[in-house]
Design brief:
Helix content: 40-55%
CATH topology of the largest domain: Rossmann fold
Order of helices and strands: EHEHEHHEHEEHHH
CATH class of the largest domain: Alpha Beta
Distance between the termini: 75 Å
Number of strands: 6
Oligomer: single chain
Low-confidence stretches: none
Shape: elongated
Mean pLDDT: 79
Strand order of the largest sheet: 2-1-3-4
Strand content: 5-15%
Largest sheet: 4 strands, parallel
Number of domains: 2
Radius of gyration: 27 Å
CATH superfamily of the largest domain: Resolvase, N-terminal catalytic domain
């Protein structure tokens, strides 16, 4: 099996060396008869996904350059919270790459617990995706409420013109002013003025 070894230490971890993690991971890979494709090492905080080696590893996983990712423990893999850990492991699973943690064997997506962990990862990915959608809808509802309290309205995620500006546009239209003159008078872009003009019906 082709494996990727991932090790990480924070810049503030003066007494830690990624080599300490890699020694154990190499030993376990050798014991399992794995072929180490590459060792990915980051020396920065695990609270963000933008780590250089981490991103390279995830891109290589997408290309199926290895079959398994081995890490010392979850905190070395990511410190973004369990939601992001599940998100990352779910992504690996989608790429056909298993996940193995030396310190948390029950969270491995290979071996006897593989099917259970695959089901848990799939459930977590769906759960957090649903939660994200709910949070987006809740956020939009809050923005619409705040806009309404200010006499405004919120349309498709963008704040619409205040009601008094809309009334001014339509009043100037009734006085026979052109769109460009209305735009100049209200300081509203021509394209936006068009949206609020009263449409005459025959």
């Amino acid at each position: 099996m082709r494996v990727a070894l991932y090790a990480r230490v924070s810049t503030g971890d003066k007494d830690q060396e990624p080599e300490n993690q890699l020694l154990v991971l190499r030993r376990e890979a050798e014991r399992a008869g794995d072929v180490v494709y590459r060792e990915y090492v980051d020396q920065e905080s695990g609270r963000k996904s933008g780590r250089k080696a981490f991103q390279e590893m995830m891109r290589d996983a997408q290309k199926r350059k290895f079959d398994l990712v081995r890490v010392w423990d979850l905190s070395r893999f990511s410190r973004e919270g369990i939601e992001k850990v599940f998100e990352h492991t779910a992504y690996l699973e989608q790429c056909g790459v298993a996940f193995w943690s030396y310190s948390e064997p029950l969270l491995n997506t290979m071996g006897p617990m593989r099917e259970l962990m695959k089901a848990m990862v799939a459930w977590a990915a769906g759960y957090y995706s649903q939660r994200l959608s709910e949070n987006v809808r809740a956020g939009l509802a809050r923005k619409q409420q705040k806009a309404a309290e200010k006499g405004e309205k919120y349309v498709h995620g963008r704040r619409a013109l205040a009601l008094d500006i809309v009334a001014q546009i339509q009043q100037l239209q009734a006085q026979g002013l052109s769109v460009r003159k209305i735009s100049a008078a209200t300081k509203v872009p021509v394209g936006t003025v068009h949206k609020y003009l009263v449409r005459e019906t025959v």
